[in-house]
Amino acid sequence: MKGFDFSALLDSVDEIVMVIDENYSIQFVNNKLKLLTNKTPSQVTGKKCYSVLFKRTEPCENCPLSYLKEKCFAKDIIHDTIDFRGFRKIFRGKFECVGDRYFVEVFDDITEGKVLVDKLTHQAKELKANNVILNLKKLEVEKKHRFLTKVINSISDGLMVVEKDYSINILNYKISEFVGKHSDELRAGKCYEVYGFSEPCKECPLIDKKITKSVRKVNKKTLTLQFNRFDDYIVESIRDTTREILLLDEIKRQQQDLKEKQHQMMKLNEDLLKMNEKLKKAQEIIDEELRQVGEIQSSLLPEKLPEIEGYEFGAFYTPAEQAGGDYFDCIEMSNGYWGFTVADVSGHGIPAAVIMAITRAIMRSYTYDVISAAEALNMVNEILCDNIYTNDFVTMFYLVMNSLTGECNYASAGHNPLLYFDKSEMVVKKVTANGLFLGTFDMVEYEEGSFTFDNGDIAFMYTDGLVEAMNKNDEQYGYDRLINKIIMFHNEKCDDIIKYIMEDVKEFTEGRPFEDDITIFIIKKKEV
């Protein structure tokens, strides 16, 4: 077919036919390109296909040219673009490889078909949505009908709607209960037949419009009827008042009984007044006994604090009640050793005070010259477990100090950590050791730690009543505030440190009484 004009043949087809090289440059394109770009083939030859067709600066994201270069099968792609007149155009692109360096792109305009499919799809969705709405409305109407039926049947009173010919339009289940007949049987008859009559009732609002209320006797029941007129209908509200009449009789009887009981209450009140006087006297005796227990407990605390060269001490104790469960002690041993303890017995009052006294006696009797704090707590725990059979327990922090060297070892039985002020670093450290509280579990091991006092260092021992003191907003005093005060007043004497801290606690609690005992014991190594 030498001399045949293939360009004219390609111009006659409806698709855009384009030949590009491996660099996306247009080598040939038919005249159908003008429908999209308003440009002739000669104007675009040598230019990039993606720039001419889609006004892009780089190849299309879904371009299959890379697949064709690898001799792979290229899928058709869809291009959604705008022509030179501003109309939307949708093309289906097909790609084929012709030789090693050239590729044919054929673009078929499927705009009309695509728009028609989209339109039909949209209409189908609208029809489906309208159908769903209609179904929803139908379900809503059915739901309302069921709801109204349930409402009418749930009304505690009987309800009946009567037409002007005495036929029953609506009747709820309650009326069936009143008259002892099935609702279907009642609906088939006339309204007056509900009450056992063969003709209209004498007091009927369909006969006399002035009648709005009436009474019917059915099955030994007294039924009170209330009538309301709506157009051609009469709505009867029926209530069983049989019980109300019985209640009125019962109320009269109870009123008589009440008078008799009031007379009895007057006599009982006189007896209670006498009993109250006895209780007041008994309370005075208990208060006096508690006061004496408190005095005995206070006498068990050290009368004076140790006087050790190079050290200063301070202590404070206040019970939440007249007798408490906190205590502190200073135990002098041989060879310059001292034992310092702060403990807290669970609970308050006399039981806590008794356990506190027992614990103090055990500490002083059995741990003398035991210079290992952990070993001492082990001994105390075993003795308490063998001798206390209540649910009470004791928390304790025990510190053993060599007053000659400043070396200390310590152990904790579930107590609050010791607050150690390190003068050299100007920080407060929480010092503690693992160990369960005393008097509950035997065979308990207590961890032991150690530190050495340096000039200006402070060991601050206390019970949880201090950090857990609350203000009127139920906020606790807390560790942060306490630690700040220790750092702030570290240069003061121990008694003054305690004084300033307790003043701050009282200011914080705003007059709210302490709910737990508070005990503080301070050891400070004097600065040289």
Could you please describe the fold and organization of this structure?
It comes from Deferribacter autotrophicus. Keywords: Coiled coil, Hydrolase. InterPro entries: Bact_Sigma-Reg, PAS, PAS-like_dom_sf, PPM-type-like_dom_sf, PPM-type_phosphatase-like_dom. Pfam families: PAS_9, SpoIIE. This protein has 528 residues and is of the alpha+beta class. The protein folds into three domains: 104 residues, PAS domain (Beta-Lactamase), CATH 3.30.450.20; 86 residues, PAS domain (Beta-Lactamase, 2-Layer Sandwich), CATH 3.30.450.20; 225 residues, PPM-type phosphatase domain (Phosphatase 2c, domain 1, 4-Layer Sandwich), CATH 3.60.40.10. Helix content is 40%, strand content 26%. The chain contains 15 helices and 20 strands. Helix 11 packs across helix 12. The protein is flat and about 125 Å long.
